[in-house]
Amino acid sequence: MRKAEEPPVDRPGEDADPESVARKILLDQLSVQARSRHELEERLARRDVPEEVATRLLDRFEEVGLVDDEAFARSWVDSRQRTRGLGRTALAVELRRKGIADETAKAVLAEVDPGDEEATARVLVQRKLRSMRGLDGQVAARRLVGMLARKGYSSGLAYAVVRQELALQGDSD
What region holds the RecX first three-helical domain (predicted)? Predict the structure, then answer.
């Protein structure tokens, strides 16, 4: 049990050096997972770290490569494509929420292989089609295109993939 006069571990005492407190917060956050600079800035602000200290430390962390928004964005895009099957539009929205600069997001999203994006959309449609066996073709198409749209796929890609998959399903029946 902690003594009454000891400050809590995550809330250092009033006399603690703001820079060491901020450094600990940053290292704790980055030890769990990669984070964008914006996320780290918000975390430091919530913990009442002075802005000039936060800026100085974040600049230093960028210099040594511990904070890298471009690498973070690449990793985030790769992860969200694999685990959630998201398309470029949804990924762009998520990157914006994470505080990634538009230029960085555009550069990272431009690296997404259109073939991979189409293959992911196709897998999503095939998976969903299993539960739509008895539905009318137009109803199924509308639902599948809607699902892909919510996941951030362009309408052109969504319609093409759905049309092809429904045709293949019709041939196999």
Answer: 22-60
